[in-house]
Amino acid sequence: MMNVAILMFDNVEVLDFAGPFEVFGVAGGRENNRLYDLFTVAQHSKPVMARNNMSVNCDYTFGTMPEAHVLVIPGGFGTRREKHSLSMQAFVRERVAKAQSVVSVCSGALLLAKAGLLKGLQATSHQCALDELVADEPACQVHRKARVVDNGKIVISAGISMGIDASLYTVAKHHGLAQAQETARSMEYDWHHQTVDGSMIVLAGIQR
Predict the structure, then answer these.
(1) How many CB atoms sit inside 10 A of residue 27's CB?
(2) Which CA distances in Å does 177 have to 12, 118, 187?
(3) Per-residue pLDDT at 193
(4) Residue 87 belongs to what domain range?
(5) Which terminus of the chain is less hemmed in, N or C, by CB atoms within 10 Å?
(6) Per residue in 10-46, pLDDT tens?
(7) Structural domain includes residue 170
(8) Could you give the residue ranges of the DSSP H alpha helices within 137-188?
(9) Where residue 22 sits, what CATH number does that domain have?
């Protein structure tokens, strides 16, 4: 079983973290073969106030969390503050280095950019954060119409609901397309964006 850590911070977008939480939590469940163990992590041991004042009690702090095979980096208005935090930058660099897979959702890409982890890579983000992403990391190729961009270890998605797509895409990378499709069926999620086409779903480094 793979450990999935979901990064949390004040003013995180709810669906950015809840969508991936659902995908990885559901995967394998109908076959009684859970594939992922999930936990949330925040810098401090106090409730995180997500968007619209949703209070979330996280499982671990930066200093107490166990190792994670998968790191989910959600977005939200809080990224505009957190991307300037040296402790957040250090945490992201450390945990991305240790993870097998990273899923960035929405403006979570800004945290990767400010941590210096998107240099020479390809990315996307929420439509309202694309120009900011270009400014934060000019050496990153930004795909403005893409929904999911796969750099190998780091999978980056566009805004909010696309975190579900990126997570299903990652389940497919780990356990095959059939498992991801079964997960989507279990969620009653109409998953269309599953085929790499070089436009909506981009596999970095592959010219199409």
Answers:
(1) 28
(2) 29, 27, 15
(3) 67
(4) 2-203
(5) C
(6) 999 999 999 999 999 999 987 788 999 999 999 999 9
(7) yes
(8) 162-175, 177-187
(9) 3.40.50.880
